[in-house]
Amino acid sequence: MTHRSDAKQQQRRLPPRQAAFIGLATGVLLLLLIGWEMNVAHEEDERLARARTATTADMMNEWVSSLLATSEHSLREILGLYRLNQAGQIEPSVLVDLLKRRRDSVDIWEDVALVDAQGYVLASTRPMEASRFELGSSAFLAPLVLESSSAASPAVSTLYWSEAVGQLRVLHALRIESPEEGVEGLVLARLDPALFEGLMERLSLGPGTSLALVDSSPRVIAQRVFGIDGSTAAAPGAHVATPQLLDFLGSDVTRDSWVRKSPVDDNRRLFSARKVTGTDWVVLAGEDTTLYLADWWRRFWALVLGWVAMVLMGAVALRHYHHLYAAEKELRRHRNRLATEVEQRTEAQRVSELEAAQLKIAAMAFETHLGMFIADADNRIVQVNSTFTAITGYSAEEVLGCNPSVLNSGRHDAAFYRHLWHSLQENGTWQGEVWNQRKNGEIYLQWLTISVVRNDKDEITHYVATLSDITQRKAAEQEIHQLAFYDALTGLPNRRLLIDRLEASLKDTRRDSQYTAVMFIDLDNFKTINDSLGHYLGDALLQAVAQRLDDIVRDSDTVARLGGDEFVVMLHELGNDSEHAVRHAESIASKLLVALSQPIRVHEHTLQVSGSIGITLFGFGEVSVSDILQQADLAMYQAKASGRNALRFFDPEMQAVVVDRARMEGDLRQALHNEELRLYYQSQVNADGCIIGVEALVRWEHPARGMVSPAEFIPLAEENNLIGPIGTWVLETACRQLARWAQSSTTEALDIAVNVSPNQFRQVGFVEEVQQILERTGADPRRLKLEVTETLLMEEVEDVRSRMETLRCMGIRFSLDDFGTGYSSLAYLKRLPLDQLKIDQSFVRDVLEDPADAAIVRTVISLAHSLELDVIAEGVETEAHRQWLFHHGCVAYQGYLFSRPCPVAELALDAH
Predict the structure, then answer these.
(1) For 650-660, how does the pLDDT look when each residue is reduced to its tens digit (9 = 90+)?
(2) Which residues have CB under 8 Å from 829's CB, separation 6+?
(3) CB-CB neighbours of 328 under 10 Å
(4) Which terminal residue of the chain, N or C, has fewer Cβ atoms less than 10 Å from its own Cβ?
(5) Torsion over CA of 145, 147, 153 and 156, rounded to 10 degrees?
(6) In 534-606, alpha helices (H)
(7) How far is CA 463 from the centre of its chain?
C-alpha cells in the first residue's frame, strides 16, 4: 500500500527536465523585466541630458542672436548715415567720425566700414592704406553677399582671416540695396570670435560638457570643452564636419539632437543643435554619455549580478532537486516522509527566492532620481525614498506617520488645496508646481505628481506622490530673460527691449493718437574720464547716471542704455496736442540736463559730466523704429555741435516753437528794465453814462514783435514767476495815476481797478508791498480796487481772508472778477470782505440770445443785491445789452460800447 502511494506520488512530481524548463522560463522573464526597467531608466537619463543640453543651446542661441541683432541694428543705423552721405548731407570726414562714434558705442565691434559693390572701401574706422578692407579681392565678397541678394535678410556673417591682427575674425555684413541698381555695396563690421568664447565662459557647465558655435562650412567660430581637468578650446576655423551636423545644416529644421563621438576628443556625447536666428550658424551643446549614464551603468551591473546570482542559486537548487528525485526513486519505500518534507522545503525555498527577487526589483524601482513618498488612505506617510530625503531634508523616521502638510510653505491658500483634492477625487491624479518648505526652512519650487491607488472594491488604499526640485530650471529661465533684455551693467532695458517697446508704442500711438517722445542722450566728456581714470570708475559713473535718469522720469516711461555712454529716454502718452507734447518733452529734457550737470561722487572721486540730448516726436505719421532712433541721434549731434550741454529737436517746426518761446521768455525778463510795458485803461460807467472809474490793463510793446497780446505773455509770466514783478509795476503805475487824478476836481472821484494774480497775492509780504506803494505814490487807498478771481479763494481761505481784511482796513476795496466761470461758492462770498461782483463777459455777450446766460446774469445780479454788493458787467458792446442789464438791476458797465482799452492820454473822461 505504501509502495503504491510512493509510486503515485513520484508520478505527480515534475521530472527534472520540466523543473529546469520552468526555472529557465522564470530566469528569462526576470531578465526581460530587468531589460525593460533599464531601457526606461536609460531613456529617462538621456531625456534629462537632452533637456540640459537643449537649455544650454537655447541660452547660447539667445545670447548670440541678441549680439548679432544688436550688431545688425547698428549696421542699419550706419546704412542711414550712408544714405545721408550719398545725398550730400554728410561730408566724408564727418562720416568717418560718425563711424568711429558708432564703433565706440557698440562694444562688440572691432572696426566698421562702408564698401562699394566692387569691394573698395568708401569709409572705414581703420587707416585707408588698404582699399579693400583686408578682403584681398572682390571675389571674397561675391559668395558672401552679392550672390545672395535675394535672401530674406540682408544681413549675413562669415569667418575670415584678418591680415591686420593675424587671426580669424567674424565679419558681419549688411547689404546696401536699391530697387534700380540692386546691390550697391556693404556695411561691414569685424567681430572678435573671443566675444563668443566669453559668452560661453559665463555659463556654469559641468565636467564632460561641451559648447560650440559653428558656421555652415562647417567651421568652428568658438568652442569650449569642459573636461574633468578643466576646459579646453578649439582653435577658430577648425573643420568639424560630421554626417549628423551636415544633415542638420542641409535640412529645414531649426533644432535637433544626436549621439556620436566628438571630433574634438573622441568622447561619445549627446549633442543638442540650434540654428541661430537670422544666420546659417549652429550652436552645439554636448554632454559626455559616460557621465550622465554613470548611475545607469551602476544599476545595470547590480541588476545583472543579482540575476546571475539568482540563476546560480536556481541551478544549485535544481541540481539538488535532481539528486533528491533520483534518491526518492531508488528509496521510495523508505523515504516517503523524507521526500515529502524535502519537496515542501524545496517549494518554500523557490517561492521565497522568487518573492525576494520581486521585492528587490520593486525596491530598486522605488529608489529613482525623483523624490517619492506613499501615504495611506488617512493621508499619513508610510514610506519615502532616499531622493525624498535629499530634496526635503527630512529622514524617513522624521516623516513616517505624519501628514504631508509638514512640507507646506504657506504660500498656497485653501482654494489651491481644495482644487488639488477635487482633482484627485474626480480624476485619480493631480500634477503641477507647488511651493514647499525644506526641513531647514528654505522654500523651493517643486513639480509634484500625485496618483490614487484603489483596491478591487474601488476604495482608496494609498496615495503615491513623486516630486522634483525645479528651482534651478526656473532661475535659469529668469536669467535667460534678464540677459536677453536688460543691460548687465546698469540693469536698464537694452537695445533689444527698447526696440520692442518702440514697436509697441508705434502701434499704441496710431491707435490712441497720442504723441511719444524719444530722447537720445550722449555724455559729453565721458571718454576722457573713462580713459584717464579707468574703466572701473567709468562703469560706476554710468551706473550713477542711469540712476539719475531713472529717478526723473515717470514709472510708465522707459530709460534704456544702448551701449557705451549712450542712453535713450522714451516718454509715453504725451497727449494729442503737438505743442503741449513739445513743451512737456522740453521740460523733462531740461531736468535731465540739470541732473547730469550735477557733480557725481564715485569712489572718493568727484566727477563732472554733461549731456547732449536729441529729441524727436512721433504719433500720427508713418515712421519706422530705425527712423525714430536715427532722427533722435541726428538731433543729438546737432546739440553737440551747438556747444554741448544742450538739447535739440529733430523737427524744425518744433525747434522753432521752443526757440521762439525761449526768446519770448528772455525778452519778457528784460521788458521791465527796457520800459516796454504799457498800462492801458478801459472806462467803467454808471446808468447815466458817467465815468465812475477805469480798469488798468497791462500791455507789452515789443520792439520787434509789436504789441504782444496779454493772452500770450501773461501765462508765460505765470509759469516763470515773472508775474510778481510785473504785477508790482502795474500796481505802482496805477497808484501814481490815482495820485495825479486826485489833483484835479474833474478826476479826483475816479476809481482804478487793478487785477491781482493769485500767485502775486499769495507772495510773502504782499500786504506790506501794497502799503509801501501807497505811501510812495501818495494815492488814496479808497480809490483803489483790487480785482481777484475765484482761483485765489479755492485754497487757504483763512489766510486769504486775513490779508483781505488787512488791506480793507487801509480803505482798499475788492471786486470778484469773472464771477460765475469757476466753482462759485456762496460760502466764501459770505465770509470774504468783497465789495463788488463782476459779471464775466462770456455771459453778457449772449444774454439776449441764450436763455441760460440770461438766467445766470439775473441770478448774479439778484445775489449781489441780496449780499449788499455792487455789481458791474463787462463786455457790454451794444445799447441793447445795456438796456437789458439796467432793466434787471445792473447799473454799472464796462465794454466797447463806452470805450476800448487805451493809453491814459487817449482816455475820454467826459463820456455820457
Answers:
(1) 876 655 666 67
(2) 816, 863, 867
(3) 21
(4) N
(5) -30
(6) 535-552, 578-597
(7) 44
- For the record, the C-alpha cell of 203 comes out as 555659463
Task: Please report, as a single letter, which amino acid is at residue 28.
Answer: V
pTM of the shown model: 0.41
| Cell, residue 3 | 509502495
DSSP element (H, E) containing 632 = helix 625-641
Separation between Cα atoms, residue 911 and residue 899, nearest integer Å: 9
> 292-305: per-residue pLDDT in tens?
787 888 888 888 89
Residues 740-757: tens digit of each pLDDT:
999 998 899 999 999 998
| Distance (Å, whole) CA 323 – CA 325 | 5
The residue length of the chain stands at: 912
In angstroms, the Cα distances linking 558 to 492, 505, 561 are 9, 11, 10
- 723-741: per-residue pLDDT in tens? 899 999 999 999 999 999 9
- pLDDT greater than 60 at residue 40: yes
Asked whether 698 and 679 are in contact (CB, 8 A), the reply is yes
Residue 537 near residue 529, CB atoms below 8 Å: yes
Q: What is the pLDDT of residues 51-102, one digit of tens each?
A: 888 888 888 888 888 888 888 888 888 888 888 877 777 887 788 888 888 8
For residue 169, the cross-strand partners are 160
pLDDT at 873: 94
Beta-carbon contacts of residue 475 (< 8 Å; ≥ 6 apart):
none
**Is 199:60 a contact under the CB 8 Å cutoff?**
yes
Beta strands 182-191 and 706-708: pairing type?
unpaired
Spatial distance between the Cα atoms of 426 and 423, rounded to a whole number of angstroms: 5
Question: Under a CB-based contact definition with an 8 Å cutoff, are residues 841 and 875 in contact?
Answer: yes
CA distance 566 to 104: 10
